[in-house]
Structure formats: C-alpha cells, structure tokens
Amino acid sequence: MKITEVKSFLLSKPRDLHIIKIETDAGIYGIGEAGCSTREHGQDGVLKHFREFLIGMDPMQIEHIWQVCYRGAYYEGGRIITGTMAAIDMALYDIVGKKLGVPVYQLLGGACRERIYGFITVGSLSEPECESRILAAVEEGWPAIRFSPADPIIPRALRVDIGKEDLSNVFDARSSMAATAERFTRVWEETDKRIALGIDYHHRLSVAEAAQFCQMVPRGSLAFLEEPIRNENPDAYAVLRTMTDVPFAIGEEWPSKWAALPYIERGLTNFARVDVCCIGGLTEAKKVSGWCEAHYIDLMPHNPIGPVCTAATLHYAASINNFTWVEVVPKFNEGASDVFPEMPRRRGTYYDLPTRPGLGVEFDEDAALKYPLEIYEHPHLQRPDGSYTNW
User: What domains appear along the chain, each with residue ranges and CATH number?
Assistant: First the structure.
C-alpha cells in the first residue's frame, strides 16, 4: 500500500479547522485534524512541503514517517510543523485501522476502560447564566466542571489617555482575580464536594498574580488551576510551585515530548493537558502518556476543535491507564454533521468506546467546500496601561 495523494481542507465549520486527507492506492483514505488554530494557512504551507515526499511512502510506517516529517528540514519541530504532523499521523492511524478492520485504540494497546468521561466548561464566572449552567452540569452528572475567569473586560474609557469608550480587549488582572476568587468561592461552597472544580486562566497572570490568586480561594477548593502563567519557561512554574499547593493542569501547548520533559520530570504539572492535534499526533502523545505514568501524572487531554480531534483523543484516552477526563466542547466537538456524517456520539457525560475501524469519522469533501476558511484571530488583549497580554 502506498500514499497516492495528500489533500488539505481549510474550513470554518464548526469553527476554523484544518483537515488533512491522505489517500492510498488501496482505495482507503484517512483523515486528521491539525491543531494550531488561527494559523491554518501556516500549516497548509508546511503540508505542501511534506506532500512532496509523502506521496509514494508506505502509510503503515507511522513512526518512520513521524521522524521524517519532524527532522526532514534539519530545523526540527515547532508548533506549526507538529500541528501539521499531528493531522498526518492520525490520518495514517485511520488508514491502518481501516486496513486491519480495527478501531485505532486497538493499535495503541487496546482499551483500558469501558467508557471515557469528560469535563464540561460552563463559561465565565461573571456571566449571569453561569449559575444555571452549573446547576445543569451537576444535574447531568459531570464529574468535573471548569470555569473561565470572571469577565475581565473593562471600558478603555477608564484610561485617561483614551478619548473614546471601547468595551473590548482590556484585561485587568487584579479586578479579574478578585471577582473570580469571590464568585468561585461561593460556587464551591454550594457544590457537591465530589465534583472536581477547575479554572482556566489561559496564561493571563504573572507568577506573583497566580500565587496570590491561589491564596484567595479556600484551600482544597480548586481541583486544578489550568495554565495560570505562560509555559515557555518551566523555571517560572517551578517558582510558582513553591508558592502554592494548588494542582496545576499544564500542557495543551506542548509541541513535543521534549517540551513536556521538564514539566514531567520536575513534577510541575499534576494533570497533563496533552493535545493530540498539537503535540504531533497519537505517536507522540502515546509516548508522553507513558512518561507521565512513570511519574504518577494523569492525562486530561485538551480537545477544543473538531470531530476528528475528538475521535483521535477518545482513542488515545481509551488506550492509556492514567487518564482522568477529556475536554468536551459540544458546539465544536460535535458540530458540522454534513461535513462529518459519522463522528463520535456522546452519551451525556461520557463516550462509549469507538467501534468502527480506524478513527470512526467520515468526511464529506463536497460539504467541506461549502464552508471556506474565514481568517480569524483570537482577541488581542491589553492590560489597562496598553501593554499586550495573552488571550
């Protein structure tokens, strides 16, 4: 069996997505999803280079193809490259699973569980409907609930150097910390203590701010604090680790096992947020999960994009013992049924084990062409003084 074509689809439903389809001379195709959202054209450019050597290769040689893609340009890795590689890697697993007539998790060692539970995000703690969403999530039986921080947006008119009111893109960390701590504490006091509660601060805080925030909520209330600071420098997390005992959830930006290394070896994360669409696919994600197992670190996979990412993540979660919950974002994970006529079906708070050969997702090229990609940027946030900060 040989690869005969590598196709790229940039689409805007259910959100901005980059889908890669690999065809073979056996009539079997595989699909994958690349993970660097808002940088899809960059990934598409990388794929054009990869296509030159992928055509003619044996799709069964998944590890070999991973090594060639990662190291082939001499300048190794990088998130745009590993995001593209991720889609290629999962498409190859899809092909091999279909060829052998088995679900992908069987290729990864078989199932470690009967069902795969998720966690749900109920939005910002400052949204009026947040309380009703929490009650609904508890009633539905979600084992873990995540929040975004209290709404950080303040009018730019509060800045004396701005002459007109602009209600967007100004993040006041101290205001957010105060409101988030107050509202989270109230939620925690009223919620069944068996339910894990977490907050995703999305890299918006400094070390000092993150440490103080951890001191502002009741001890033991946070099951996890996700990405409180940027993760380029593990030494910064090591300093923060000495200032708080709140468990951290880190890893959604890891582009490789090498980026994960210090966080695992130095005990800087308690929940590894591995994203199979960013880290280079199932091949690399599986290696990181074994490394985490050796350090008693649980996997809590990042899963914020489309149905192909969800399917690959479910096969990954099924095949590893040290797994907790998978991220569930219904409007993205389960959207665009015309583009993906077959996709994972959730049963309330969990997914059953996939049963179809390969990833279990079908892709309609004609439907995808109806939703061409529209360039999208995440919000560009500023601090009140005008300096840039993370979204």
Answer: 3-103 (3.30.390.10), 106-354 (3.20.20.120)
